Amino acid sequence: MKLMKLFTHQMNISGGGGFTQDLVISSKDIPGLKVGDVVEIYHPEDEYSRLLIQVTSLKEELQHRDALSLDQAVASTFQLRALLQVYVKAINPSDISLDLVELTFKDQYVGRSEMWRLNQNLIVFRSASSMVYLFIQMSSEMWNFDVFGDLYFERAVDGFLGDLFTRWKKEGCNHEVTIVLFSRTYYEAASIDAFPSEMRSKVTADFRGRFYEDYYRVLVHNERSDDWHKMLTQLRIAFNSYPEEVLEASHKKYGQQNVPKAYNSSASHGNFLEVLNMSLNVFEKHYMDRSLDRTGQLSVVLTPGVGIFEVSRELTSITKQRIIDCGIGSDLVCVGEQPLHAVPLLRFQNKDMLDTDDYNIPHWLNLSFYTTNKKLGYSNFVPRLRLPVSPSTKDSIRLMKSQSERIHPGCETGSLNQLFDYDAYDAQVFTLPTHVQRQNFKPVTRKESRNTSVPPEVNPEQKKSIPTRPVGLVDYLSTSHAPTLFQPRKEFGKNYDSDDTPGSRTVIGSEGSPLERQLAYRPKSRPGRALINPFDPSRVPVKHTSGRRRWIHIYPRQPDGTTLDLGFKVALDSESYKKLADYRVQLRSTKVADEPFSPALTTGVDWKSLTTPACLPITTDYFPDSASLQKDYVVSDYTISPDDVNVDDYNRKGSRRPLETSQVYREFISQRLAQGFQLIVLPALSKSSARHISVREKSADSIKKVVNPSSSFIRSLSHVDPPTKESLLSIGRIFHKITLLGSAITVTGYKPRHPYDGRKFSYIYNLRTPYIKYYQCLRTDFYTEKLQHFNWNHMDHYICTGGSPDYALTESSKYWRLRMCFLPLDYSKRFRQDPPSPSANEDRTFDGFTKFLENTVNRMRHSSKKKIHSPLERTMSTIQKGEKTTRTRVHSVRGRVEKSSFRPEGRNSPSLDLESSTSSDSLYQEKPSSEPPKKITADSPLSEVADILKCSLPFLEKFEDLLPPTTFLSYEAIHYLVEDHGLSRACAGELLQKLLSEGYIIHASGSKTVLHFVPGFHLYCFSKISSPARGKEEAIGTGMAGDYPAFEEEFVEVNYDRYFENDLCQLINCFKADDEEILIDASKKYRNDLHKLSVFKEAYIDVDVTGRSDRKEWGHLLYPSYFTPNASFVAVLKWVEATGVVIFDLVLGWVRKAQINGFLLVPMPMDPLFIGNSGRCDPFRAPLTIPMNVKVIEECLEKFPASHWLHRLWLLHDAVARRFSYIPSIFENTRRFQVQYVHATGYSFLVMPIAPEKDSTVSISNRLSYFSKVGSSNADSNFGSSDYGLPLIEKNGLRMPCGFLWVANYLLTKKWKVSQTKESQIVDENAHSKCFQDLTRFCQDETFLRDFFRL
């Protein structure tokens, strides 16, 4: 350490004089200092502001001795003042190197691919804007009192949730929160016959024969708030009404006398695993409805219990595998007192062995215990056990006799007082034999204690009285490699992966327990399971597996090598704290502790995990050894040579370009990380390079150290050149090795030889959403995904070709997607005008949509800089002037020529210079003429029409000459003929069709197969041009060379038409029409419109419009082939090779441009009404029913023949939906004749469960059991019914539901709401419920309906 004088300087980056380094110091002032060393600088009087900086260069001599100079910006940041003395000290880099860095971000979507591209492995990413599901278990303990006299509910809500919400506010968190109350209700019934017949299909029986129903009440769903404390009041209100509403729900529905008595379950017998799986059904679909302003997923279960649950073994296996594979954080917070044994503890439900206790300690749960700071006035002791109710005297005697028979069969009761060493017996039971092989386990250090062996003072006679276990039983149960005496049960043998057999699957037994009796007399009970003492779980041998090591790189390490876990409070010294805290992490990460478990250890709350959840680490450290690879895995590989695959695409024109080999290699890794894989950093390879990226250059010898080259299934590396790069990745029990060798990339996959069986668990539950006051009976499925079936060969070729249609994305590709809906801003006013004026609105809508497609989506521009006006503007101008104007050139639909928004291919490509371009301007310069242009009529010669259009239509262009120089829009051509020459739309279309048929114009792709002229946003060009200089005609070339499929991939083309009736009065008149032909024509037209609008196309999208990314990024746009102002335009943005920030910028730009052009762009769920047949829909959402007043409807229908009822009922529903500003919406997966609507504000959706065709009643999902209100008699008893609780009108054998299904748009967050736009009619935060209430009141009110029919 040396005292030196500090000077400052301004760093000159250009190098034109002055210092170019942050630190300037002389080697003479500090002997031994060299480049690369780190020095510490601070003022003597200010020791808390210290600067650590690396020496990048040394000066031989400075102007001042014992002086150094720092950059002014650096000195100012660290409060270092110039011309004052500072201490300078050389620091050993190893003493200050970082082992872990935490990066917290907010309101951003950061994918795993982006995390990896930061080139740092030791960064833990934490999100302050995650999707958080908070489940509160409303078990019977919630109404019990703790030792301080508080209800456990008060402890949970006022205590834990109050502290949690305070921390969220303090940290500035902006989580997307869902809060659900859940419980299990049991019925006192001996058989299923005790229930009403309508209820039997909805009641479930557990393994003990008890009947129950599970209830879930959603208080808030996917909401965000700056302060969640206001939610505590709502929770208190729900607490008061919850017992009655769940215990009396079935009694109110089916009758008090018909349903057995119900009671609330305890926490240990509740639906704990079910609620975790329900959240996983949502989290697994993270790539669907992708939110662009949040990252991370967290499931929190708040229970009044103590962390012990009675669960199904099958469902436990499914839950564990799903949580590990998905990399989801799951926290269990208990407000009960922590027991004196290890928790969390899962007790398995053994149907064949009711008296056997079989336990498991889940390493995939993060446990916390919340305790208050209260103290008892009379003592500092806080009991951690709840004593059971004292039994009667007879029960006590009977219990003593039962225990006596279990301990000493055949002995009298009086012999219980004899000397017996229970500790010795426990030691014998839980001690593994010394001769058992432990080659798959890490060694365990044991210390002598009173419960590990028989005390030496016990005499031989006493030892004889110790109950003995079956000889060799523990030997066979303690290791999976020991010979097996008994065949294991098939249903259990395949439910667990390698980290559950045998060590981590815990089975607890003690002297005199029922388990001991079963083992003594039924030795064939459960081979392959070890007995583990829950009061000393640190002795459990734990295997290294990929599942246990998945989160290991999220925990920091202390200098002594122990893992630091701040979730513990302990009444021991600090040394014990370190060792015991390390064991908690070892349960999740596999390292075995050296110290026995201590009851003095108490677990606190992991506030960091609950406040800023961590994302799944990018790296892990587990890879199976060569013996395991050869025995347990099947190998397969394939090689891709990007140069060979893309040989035909290197010279193609367009945005889609193939990637280079080095880019392909990195994208292979990037895509696997995005799909949940982790880079494997092996300790032997990362010891000296832990801070470097895991894509390493390695020789063949280093690879042989990882994978045994002598294995018969592994290709030998002795005869190949050393690979350039290699990476190892894993997810679950699947491992990939990606090798780059020259211009070829080899992908080697290791899949388990015995993969998991497909497991499926069907679950029936009752749900209450925030907008209703009754519970709906629904069904969902829990099952594990078969990750080994993912087609990586197909995905890798898709990446290699840069998104070629030959390797299109499929549903199994798990691509990211976002559905967006374009809604006209003025649609909500359209049916409320008197009289309506749809014509002007439709022209304005076409006008704005054309501008949006041209400038924003296709990124084209005009080749002329002349002032251009829309046809609507020209019409209005003519009317205002009261005179006809003559034009020599048509102007396009835009109101002004905007600066080009397209970017030429390549970051350094020069932009297209219109001033020097001669492709179109030199050939088509407008000549001054004193004569007005000729009028075009239907009989005008085609050559004359073509010449007039050449001189009048504006032309479009795009980079790389992808369009011919005379490209024009069909929409503008038709408008020009209509507005400037007085032709009708039909006549203009026929005239342009003749030009196409005669070859005067062709499609802009140059393809001769396009034979029809389509009005709308379609691109055409003139096939020949007249050159006055040469006096002859020349053919115009095209950039796409006649490749129409390539053109469709590059450009978004949409047909324009006026589908769907937009006059509300006309709809009512069709409903009341006596003429059958009018009714049939209306239905037929609607069916034809649905058919046309259900055709979708897909185009390639260059998503990096601003050039922010350092790699090639692209996506695809799935869009309808037709656009009409009377229906929403729904498009889906799909991507796999794109950064979250880039997609956010793209979508945000589209939202702004859409608003400028008169549209509201809102997100839409991929399954808006949650009616998919997969059983994996969001289980906490369901469409709500809006029944119609059947009495009024039947009165109106009685006037007409019964054969017309279905058509008229459909017209009625359509008119009501339009009356409340609901717009027809056609999705890419819409079923035949299924009619869905979206509100003009995007706030909600509707579906009509009927269709405009006989026998076409829409069948939704068998997920919906019934939707009728509590107490209604219209409840169906079968899954998959089509009435959904709606009232029915039955006529001529038809059952016609009367009403709607409604759901709110939960994706419409505050950032999407353009409330500043007056025309958008966006209302307050209660718009969801207000919209639902208004429509419900209208459909059920007789006066409203009768007045509506008289329109």
UniProtKB/TrEMBL annotation:
**In its UniProt record, which GO terms are filed under biological process?**
cellular response to amino acid starvation; negative regulation of TORC1 signaling; positive regulation of autophagy
Top-level lineage group: Eukaryota
MF (Gene Ontology):
GTPase activator activity
Ranges annotated as biased composition (Low complexity): 909-923
Region of interest called Disordered, as start-end residue ranges on this chain:
444-466, 490-515, 860-939
Q: Which Pfam families does this chain map to? A: DEPDC5_CTD (PF19418), IML1 (PF12257), IML1_N (PF23013)
Instruction: Spell out the Basic and acidic residues composition-biased ranges.
Output: 895-906, 928-937
Indicate the segments forming the IML1 N-terminal double psi beta-barrel domain, all copies. Answer: 1-89
Q: Which residues form the Vacuolar membrane-associated protein Iml1 N-terminal domain?
A: 123-348
* Transmembrane region(s): none
Which InterPro entries does the entry mention? DEPDC5_CTD, IML1, IML1_double_psi_beta_barrel, IML1_N
Which Gene Ontology cellular component annotation is one that this UniProt entry carries? lysosomal membrane
Span of domain DEPDC5 C-terminal: 1042-1341
The biased composition feature labelled Basic residues covers 860-869
What is the name of the protein in this document? DEP domain-containing protein 5
Per the UniProt entry, what species is this protein from, by scientific name? Artemia franciscana (Brine shrimp)
Q: What lineage does the source organism belong to?
A: Eukaryota, Metazoa, Ecdysozoa, Arthropoda, Crustacea
